[in-house]
Amino acid sequence: MTATEAFVAHRNLLFTVAYEMLGSAADAEDVLQETWLRWADIDLGQVRDQRAYLVRITTRLSLNRLRTVKRRREAYVGPWLPEPLLTAPDVAEDVELAESVSMALMLVLETLTPTERAVFVLREVFDFGYDEIANAVGKTPAAVRQIAHRARKHVDARRPRETVSARDTRAALESFRRALETRDLQGLLDVLAPDVVLMSDGGGVKQAALRPVVGADKIVRFVLGGIARTEAKLTSVPTVVNGNPGLLLHLDGELDGIMAARVEGGRITGLYYVRNPEKLTHVESETPLTLR
């Protein structure tokens, strides 16, 4: 297999690794470009496992970039949310993959150190062996085992309590969508859990709550109040965002943002609304990703 053929064959895997480590499709694409440049200069005769070697390059480049972007995110205006990905419907059928790229879990991954995040992604999401991960992150296999255990414990304590089917999430979002478009106060309260949390990301460019909004009553007032302040017509289109059902929200036909949700017990417990234009640039024109 030539260098180009190997890179193309594993491109989806490399992109998903980079995206899960960085939470940004733009940064992941940059990492892939750097990966290709380094890969093209390698003597393939010295490479035993092309897939593992490519993942190692991508992981190390992602680690370097992650340490840089973490500092940048500390100065971010308001809550930072991952750049949303429109994903193909079949991604939602792969429950483990869909959960690993969900907004809820991606936010949990943000609380890990860069090395913990890399180890968790490679081990828990892609089932790489400890020796392979050790080569990728520059640690011993024994150290990687300890890091993996620590990262798994950290994530398990913070990840959503239950895995919900795409069908149940879709049903809850459809109820939310109908109530939102008709400004049905009671309908919104019925589908939102009492302790639901809304995070909105405007990046300092679009108006958004500077802190998470907690509680169904507060969220309904916040959302309906925002709609009331504009004369534009609100419409929403179901889609698949980060492997899970989501919504594209439009004002007078123009994309305003992308909403993802966490659902537990048939009600919405988390809403994630990305309005930052920099994170929406390619959304309507891009082909939904298959990942892996």
Describe the model.
This protein is α+β, with helices and mostly antiparallel strands and 292 residues long. It has helices spanning 3-9, 11-22, 25-40, 50-73, 89-93, 95-100, 103-109, 114-125, 130-137, 141-158, 166-182, 185-191, 216-228; strands at 192-201, 213-214, 234-241, 244-251, 254-264, 267-274. Strands 2-1-6-5-4-3 form a 6-stranded mixed β-sheet. β3 and β4 form a beta hairpin. α2 packs parallel to α4. It is elongated, with a radius of gyration of 20 Å.
Keywords:
single chain; alpha+beta; six-stranded mixed β-sheet; elongated
Give a short overview:
By secondary structure, the protein is of the alpha+beta class.
Provide the spatial order of strands within the biggest beta sheet: 2-1-6-5-4-3
The amount of beta strand, in percent, is 15-25%
Q: H/E element string? A: HHHHHHHHHHHHEEHEEEE
Could you describe the largest sheet, including whether it forms a barrel?
A: 6 strands, mixed
Supply Rg: 20 Å
Q: Would you count the extended β strands for me?
A: 6
